[in-house]
Amino acid sequence: TMKNPVPQAASLLLEKLMLLVHVHVRPFLAGSGGETTPPAPGDYDTSSFKRGDLLEVPRTLFVHFGIYLGENRVAHLMPDILPSFTDDLQQIQQVVTNKRLILGVIARTASVRVDTVEDFAYGGSILVNHMDRLFEDQVLGSEEAARRAEKLMGATAYSLLWNNCEHFVTYCRYGAPVSFQTDKFCETVKMIIRDQRSVLASMLVGLASIVCLGLAPSTTLPTIFIPFFLWMAG
């Protein structure tokens, strides 16, 4: 007999919770503040990178994006709660901890920051301008892409649907904010909701919307599902 695809889709949805963060994931380690030692400088050969290049770091469950600014610097958007509490650039520029990251997702706050290539990629392989093939004639000049990234530096809102790291880089390099990862996530949600055989799957969708879309804890389940039914109708 054919297996019910809904539990598999629900499982995929839970895994994709980490996709919503759109950043490199560091393991939670007891007694160390949840952080691991970052890669040493010089782990990546940046000689072939050009200012304005779109850097893409594939992960198991998601892809993280940034714009190369030259001199081993990458601008990228990361969820971060700290800019909501301080303007101290020295504190904000420190490597984002897991706590700052998670609280930023919940509070829907982020920052466009500059990190070294090593901190940006965090041990992952880097693809350069891999998305250009999807936009063809829409690619802006490299200097224009870099300048757009630099103009957006600082605190910003975070949203899975409207403002994540992929939206940031596609706006900078192609002139229009787009997120293919978000589209895939929404299609998974639609598939789960359309199959009314699984109450558990629907509950998971509701929980995911609370955690990832920033809905208030007091929101009722019918309210939670309104945006998803609108997606279905579309």
From TrEMBL:
GO molecular function annotation: phosphatidylcholine-retinol O-acyltransferase activity
Lipid bilayer topology: Single-pass membrane protein
Domain LRAT: start-end pairs: 54-181
InterPro entries in alphabetical order: LRAT (IPR042288), LRAT_dom (IPR007053)
Functional pathway: Cofactor metabolism; retinol metabolism
Enzyme type, top EC level: transferase
One Pfam family in the UniProt entry: LRAT
Signal sequence range: 1-25
Reaction it catalyzes: 1,2-dioctanoyl-sn-glycero-3-phosphocholine + all-trans-retinol--[retinol-binding protein] = 2-octanoyl-sn-glycero-3-phosphocholine + all-trans-retinyl octanoate + apo--[retinol-binding protein]; 1,2-diheptanoyl-sn-glycero-3-phosphocholine + all-trans-retinol--[retinol-binding protein] = all-trans-retinyl heptanoate + 2-heptanoyl-sn-glycero-3-phosphocholine + apo--[retinol-binding protein]; 1,2-didodecanoyl-sn-glycero-3-phosphocholine + all-trans-retinol--[retinol-binding protein] = 2-dodecanoyl-sn-glycero-3-phosphocholine + all-trans-retinyl dodecanoate + apo--[retinol-binding protein]; 1,2-dihexadecanoyl-sn-glycero-3-phosphocholine + all-trans-retinol = all-trans-retinyl hexadecanoate + 2-hexadecanoyl-sn-glycero-3-phosphocholine
Family: Belongs to the H-rev107 family.
Protein name: Lecithin retinol acyltransferase
Native organism: Pachyramphus minor
Source species taxonomy: Eukaryota, Metazoa, Chordata, Craniata, Vertebrata
Chain's gene name: Lrat
